[in-house]
Amino acid sequence: MQPLYEKLIEADGIVFGSPIHMYGMTAQSKAILDRTFSMNRPGKTLANKVGGVIVVAGSIGIINALKDYYFFFTVQRMLPANFVGAYATVKGDAVKLVKGMEAAYKLGKEMVLLVDKKFEFPKGYLRNHYGFGTHTH
Questions:
Q1: How many domains does one find in the chain?
Q2: How far apart are CA 77 and CA 117, in angstroms?
Q3: In this structure, is residue 128 part of a structural domain?
Q4: pTM confidence score
């Protein structure tokens, strides 16, 4: 993960993507998200970076993956861009979807425009990843 951490920190925008296996993102994709939890230190954060998503499914599961990615963006204090969700069952079929490929191109353009806006979350407000209840103080 160390080389990946460096690339994530250097990036202004990150496109996350995954094929859909068993109704959600792959285990490898989820492991990357899980391992970024340690990136919550000055100079080692994903905050204020633009995030986009591309997912491809054979049938169902796109919504589950999108929910997970966008909740990840919220917890990491990233600025969410659009997403592309495509349905394809045979390897190579997704690139044949003209509208899907156009949407992926537009996603990239949108991310560049959002990065150029130099959005920043207000300082002094820590990310909240807790559900409050009797177990919290």
A1: 1
A2: 16
A3: no
A4: 0.89
Asked if 71 and 41 touch (Cβ cutoff 8 Å), the reply is: no
SS percent in the chain: helix, strand, coil, step 5: 40, 25, 35
pLDDT in tens, the chain (137 residues): 999 999 999 999 999 999 999 999 999 999 999 999 888 777 889 999 999 999 999 999 999 999 999 999 998 999 999 999 999 999 999 999 999 999 999 999 999 999 999 999 888 776 666 666 776 56
In the 8-state DSSP scheme, what is residue 120? -
Task: Give DSSP secondary structure letters for 16-58.
Answer: EEEEEETTEE-HHHHHHHHHGGG-EETTEE-TT-EEEEEEEES
Q: Which residue has the tokens 């599961």?
A: 61
Q: 32 lies in which domain range?
A: 2-116
User: Pairing mode, if any, of strands 13-21 and 24-25?
Assistant: antiparallel
